[in-house]
Amino acid sequence: MPSHHLPLLLTAFQHRFRRDLEAMSRHLVDDASVGWEELGTDLLNGAPYAIVSILTGGQKWPSRTLDHLTTADGAPPVRMTVTDATADEQDMQWGYVLYPEGIEVISFLHEDIGPTVDWDTDPLTGFSDNPALWAANAPAPVVRHPYVTVPRTTPAPLPAKRSPARPAARR
Asked: Is 0.85 topped by the overall pTM?
């Protein structure tokens, strides 16, 4: 789901991999012998604590590959290569393609291509999980910001002023 995966991938690119797309691709594509079961918070290593805390709610979980699979005939599993022909067979609903300019998000339920989300996008941006909104000829569907934050341009509120102490009234 884009609402979950895009923030992790954007944060990983910007912080853990320090904008090195080759290093990120090597980790996510080349180093996974079969594929990924789950992307974890280890992708957020090096990111500011505030971003990690907001994205994860303070929880930690590891990324897990599909290396533990066994096949029906006992042969070692092979890399999961997703193509137009195999996407349906693998029950894939979403695809993410890494490009120098950003991440292409593909809803396999509706399209074979999708919009590209720029690498400079704020990882705290909210994205829709509605597959119909991820059309190739439209911008990425941003939804209302899911995190309650104070805009950086807003000055900090001043403390309330106390009225000067008055002497007690005499009767």
From this structure: no
The SS3 assignment for 54 reads: helix
Of the candidates 60, 53, 58, the one whose C-alpha atom is nearest the C-alpha of residue 38 is 60
Instruction: Give the Cα separation of 140 and 75 in Å (integer).
Output: 41
Where are the alpha helices (H) located in the chain, listed in sequence order?
Answer: 2-11, 21-25, 49-56, 84-89
Q: What is the pLDDT of residues 1-41, one digit of tens each?
A: 899 999 999 999 999 999 999 999 999 988 877 777 888 99
Strands 94-99 and 142-143: unpaired
Residue reference for tokens 């829709």: 128
Using CA atoms, how far apart are residues 17 and 29, in angstroms rounded to an integer? 14
Spatial CA neighbour of 34 closest among 62, 76, 75, 5 = 76
